[in-house]
Design brief:
Layout: H1 2-25, E1 33-34, E2 36-38, E3 46-48, E4 52-57, E5 62-68, E6 78-79, E7 83-87, E8 92-102, E9 107-108, E10 119-129, E11 133-141, E12 147-150, E13 159-162, E14 165-174, E15 179-183, E16 187-188, E17 191-193, E18 199-203, E19 207-218, E20 221-235, E21 243-249, E22 252-257, E23 261-262, E24 271-276, E25 282-283, E26 287-292, E27 299-304, E28 314-319, E29 325-326, E30 335-339, E31 377-382, E32 392-397, E33 402-405, E34 417-419, E35 425-433, E36 451-456, E37 463-467, E38 477-484, E39 490-492, E40 494-499, E41 507-518
């Protein structure tokens, strides 16, 4: 047994000897590979003036290196160290260079083949930003919308403006700020965040109000704030009080006036509401209360007694002049049968569906090859008229013709909107008839008037949005819509079907701003 152990030990010792001998003979060569980092590389090497950046050469196989900084820019001019900390004192865009010599032909960055040289030059661009500074300007807006006189921007200026009038705000800034905020107490709107260009704001509340403007950037951090105390003084107006809009809010009727209103002067008996339901019934509810909106005091909220308005109602509002007045004591005038327009949120605005025809081409609205009269149409995008933006779709239904199209995005994929089972949606579109309309009896044959309808590809519902009857308004934009309630969850790519069979004439119209909005309809 002992001999076996010794023999085994001898073999192990011999193997170990040869292994060590072979290992000593292996020549290990360090790879030459460029790798450079900076402490601000994830932030485009942008720093504030007086700030610093750490430059690191973590390359392998480096024999020598030289960092070179532009003269008079940093507290370092040259260095051969692997890590250099440089503080920059001059605003601007500066090139920092690194010259490296490697032991062998070097790999550059992430490349998988050698660069062909043992010497590599690298340039790192550093942007040194100065302090953020902002300048603002405010002007009155004339009655015709043109730019008026400039306002003073000193504390206690109390620039005088008549209630319900506008001012126009603009700004310039240095130091590359990216966030801009206007804080405007008692203006409408009272906050503006990153406005595109100049902004018009309206003052309706009598009194003296401040102004604040903030320009800032998050990295490198910096900002400038302009605060003006008692910037503007709003005085009462003798101008007529204008009803700007009638809408809905939480089932109530919202009356938006041109100036802040005094709800205490509103008598319920001076108002009347008429509701025509989808079934044709006429409801004349009593008004339970009248209050001002807690945020916008130029809006009166009419709560109905035991009733509310729904999106498929037709609502008319009338007012007989009484004691209703603004907070600056100007009486409101009568109005009759002002139609309520519901506030809805267009789901297509957050989808890949080009609802406003602004960002696609004709090829993104392809024919669906139904054959027969369904291909008897012409479709193109147009800038002649638009309901919003600069473009709309121009459509011609040929005599006895029709149209079947769908919509794809710029990648050629079906444009999708997701609908939820049991939820009611309003599908709408704005139509502009290129008049004159029909000059012969209409329809000339068949059982149906010309129309426009939206379907999902599953044809699980039909939204008949538009019927082109003889009394359809011409040469103006008209909103048309239909209500649908999907029976199943569905990612919808709409098929838009136009019908002109029965009409022996070409039907020409523009359409714009297709919308799909979640709504509540009368039970």
């Amino acid at each position: 047994m002992k001999k076996i152990k010794l023999f085994g030990f001898a073999i192990v010792s011999l193997l170990a000897f040869y292994a060590c001998t072979e290992e000593d003979e292996v020549k290990l060569t360090e790879a030459s590979h460029r790798a450079i980092v900076t402490s601000e590389m994830n932030f485009e090497n942008k720093i504030n003036v007086g700030g610093h950046i750490d430059f690191g050469d973590i390359s392998s196989g480096v024999v020598s290196r030289t960092w070179t900084f532009p003269e008079g820019v940093a507290d370092v001019s040259t260095s051969s160290e692997a890590v250099v900390k440089a503080t920059f004192s001059k605003v601007g865009v500066h090139n920092v260079t690194l010259k490296q010599t490697f032991a062998n032909e070097a790999y550059a960055d992430e490349r998988t083949t050698p660069s062909g040289s043992a010497e590599l030059d690298t340039t790192i661009v550093v942007t040194v930003l100065g302090d953020v500074t902002a300048q603002i300007q405010a002007n009155y807006v004339n009655a015709d919308g043109s730019l008026g006189a400039e306002l003073s921007l000193v504390d206690n200026a109390e620039n005088v403006i008549t209630a319900s009038n506008y001012i126009r705000l603009s700004y310039t800034a240095e130091g590359d700020p990216i966030n801009f905020i206007w804080n405007l107490p008692n203006a409408k709107p009272n906050t503006l965040q990153n406005p595109e260009g100049d902004a018009d704001v309206r003052y309706s509340k009598v009194g003296v109000h401040d102004l604040e403007f903030i320009a800032s950037r998050s990295r490198p951090f910096g900002g400038d704030t302009i605060s003006i105390k008692n910037f503007i003084k709003v005085i009462p107006s003798t101008d007529p009080v204008i009803l700007d809009a009638v809408s809905d809010k939480d089932g109530k009727v919202a009356l938006e006036f041109s100036r802040d209103m005094d709800a205490a002067t509103a008598a319920k008996t001076d108002f009347s509401i008429s509701i025509e339901t989808a079934g044709g019934a006429i409801i004349s509810p009593q008004i339970a209360s009248i209050t001002t909106d807690p945020v916008d005091e130029n809006i009166l909220l009419l709560e109905l007694e035991g009733e509310r308005v729904y999106n498929n109602d037709k609502v008319m509002v009338s007012y007989t002049a009484g004691e209703l007045s603004t907070l600056d004591a100007v009486a409101a005038t009568s109005f009759t049968d002002e139609a309520l327009v519901f506030n809805t949120v267009n789901m297509l605005e957050n989808s890949n569906y080009d609802y406003s025809f602004e960002n696609t081409t004709n090829t993104n609205w392809p024919y669906q090859f139904w054959g027969g009269n369904w291909g008897e149409y012409d479709f193109s995008l147009s800038s002649v008229v638009s309901q919003d933006g600069s473009k709309s779709a121009y459509v011609e239904f040929r005599p006895e013709g029709g149209m079947v199209i769908s919509h794809t995005d710029m990648l050629g994929e079906n444009a999708i909107v997701s609908l939820v089972a049991g939820t009611t949606y309003e599908v709408g579109v704005w139509i502009y008839i290129d008049g004159p309309f029909f000059t012969a009896p209409y329809p000339t044959s068949g059982n149906f008037v010309s129309d426009l309808r939206f379907y999902p590809r599953s044809f699980g519902f039909e939204a008949a949005t538009t019927f082109f009857t003889e009394d359809f308004p011409v040469n103006e934009w008209v909103y048309t819509s239909a209500f649908i309630t999907p029976g199943a969850d569905e990612d919808v790519n709409f098929v838009i079907r136009g019908y002109n069979v029965g009409n022996g004439q070409t039907l020409k119209f523009y359409m714009d701003n297709i919308s799909v909005a979640e709504v509540e309809i009368r039970p």
